[in-house]
Prior knowledge:
alpha+beta; Aminopeptidase; five-stranded mixed beta sheet; 3 helices; 5 strands; 32% strand; binds coenzyme A
Amino acid sequence: MYSSTTPVVDLADHQHRYGILVDGRLAGFTEYRDRGAQRVFFHTEIDEAFAGRGLASVLVQQALSDVRKSGKRVVPICPYVAKFLQKHDEFADIADPVTPEIRHWLRTELG
Ligand SMILES: CC(C)(COP(=O)(O)OP(=O)(O)OC[C@H]1O[C@@H](n2cnc3c(N)ncnc32)[C@H](O)[C@@H]1OP(=O)(O)O)[C@@H](O)C(=O)NCCC(=O)NCCS
């Protein structure tokens, strides 16, 4: 049984993001767009009220595990996700480099 303070990570596919809930409140999210089999992460944010307790790390860890489960790959445009990948070798096999083409594609995608 989870305690009420165990954060829960949820995929909101229609919003292209994973959210992290603490006691039912949305504490933050990481946003992506899919480019074929690549899930391109471009922004991660944790609400200030929840900052500095490792929630971004829990969120990104679970988001990347979900990417692995769905057979996709990760492109870390978001600096937080890039830093996370540098520290967590276990996702190296599903990580693709950020290229100028992908940055350009993302800009077009986001409008
Ligand atoms: C960056 C952010 C998501 C971290 O959330 P958090 O839950 O407080 O983070 P955690 O407690 O899991 O981790 C803190 C780590 O984030 C790192 N960090 C903070 N701001 C960062 C940034 N802009 N880019 C990369 N890493 C950052 C810290 O250096 C720290 O690293 P460490 O674990 O190696 O010491 C949060 O501060 C935030 O929403 N910032 C504003 C938006 C932003 O700059 N997002 C990142 C780029 S898209």
